[in-house]
Design a protein that fits this description.
Layout: H1 3-6, H2 16-39, E1 45-49, H3 53-74, E2 117-121, H4 128-140, E3 144-148, H5 152-160, E4 177-179, E5 195-197, E6 206-208, H6 216-225, E7 254-255, E8 260-261
Parallel strand pairs: 1-2, 1-4, 2-3, 4-6
Antiparallel strand pairs: 5-6, 7-8
Length: about 290
């Protein structure tokens, strides 16, 4: 990556007040994740991962909580105690003593009883760069991956209809809870709550939305500060990635003088995030909302 694209924009140079604001959102998200893991068995849960900027932040936060649960267990604490908190008193303090590296992705313990399935929803219209990124994250972080190649609704119904005696492994157990990276600015996100059942006509699943009240720049501030990986398309002016047919670089990032697009994190306003998305063709899978 050349220096132009690796240099941070003003929008991701967090000040002390920005850190405090983001720290509060991290604390709330961590608590939501902890509550979900204390309420439902880990073996019934999964993380929806599509290779997008929101899903990589979600994955990092869930892994962060799981790593602390392992630490508590190894030190004699109760990992299933709903009152146990990674962040005391609901405050996630980001100050001079805080290390953002504690939120970086790290290899999971593949196949272990305290790992969570990562659900890949794959489509023939995925960008090759997105698929490459997804598999790279899966391999480097030793994720337990479940691949659903069907329409999302059909794939979930197939997964959840297997008889118990045919489970074979935890990977094919029915999904009762799915962690998602949905934000309120996403289509269908306005009326969601942190814990929401799927809509009528979908398999009965609890959607956990820890990032619901994050905004576009929260996602990029977190990604840059925690040094998370991200799909290469974001460095080329893409700000919201869907299918190949419905996604273009964001016109608001085009620099006429340099004849190139600024990277996604330089977008001036989160309200412009979906400016590169076009109308969805009828045959494209419906969003998991």
């Amino acid at each position: 990556m050349d220096p132009f694209f690796s240099a941070p924009c003003p929008s991701v140079r967090a000040s002390g007040s920005d850190d405090a604001r983001l720290g509060s959102k991290i604390a709330t998200s961590v608590q939501h994740i902890e509550k979900a893991l204390a309420t439902w068995p880990l073996s019934d849960s999964g993380i929806a991962f599509n290779g997008g900027k929101d899903s990589i932040v979600l994955l990092a936060l869930v892994q962060y909580v799981l790593s602390h649960r392992r630490t508590e267990t190894s030190s004699g604490g109760r990992a299933d105690d709903p009152d146990a908190r990674c962040a005391p008193e609901g405050n996630f303090i980001v100050d001079s003593e805080f290390s953002w590296s504690s939120l970086a992705l790290s290899p999971a313990r593949r196949g272990s009883s305290d790992s969570v399935r990562t659900i890949f929803f794959l489509d023939q219209n995925n960008f090759p760069e997105v698929l490459e990124f997804m598999w790279d994250v899966a391999m480097k972080n030793k994720l337990d991956v479940v691949i659903i190649r069907k329409h999302i609704k059909t794939g979930l119904r197939c997964l959840n209809s297997r008889p118990r005696e045919e489970y074979g492994s935890c990977l094919v157990r029915p999904l009762k809870v799915v962690f998602m990276g949905t934000r309120r600015s996403d289509p269908g996100g306005t009326n969601l709550s942190t814990f929401s059942r799927t809509d009528e006509g979908w398999p009965d699943i609890i959607r956990v939305n820890p990032l619901l009240d994050w905004d576009y720049h929260d996602i990029w501030n977190f990604t840059m500060r925690a040094e998370l990986p991200y799909c290469s398309l974001y460095s080329k002016g893409y700000t919201s990635i869907g299918s190949v047919e419905t996604t273009r670089p964001n016109k608001h990032l085009w620099q006429e003088k340099m004849q190139r697009y600024l990277p996604a994190w330089c977008l001036s306003s989160g309200a412009l995030e979906r400016s590169g998305r076009t109308a969805k063709p009828a045959q494209e899978a419906a969003p998991f909302l």
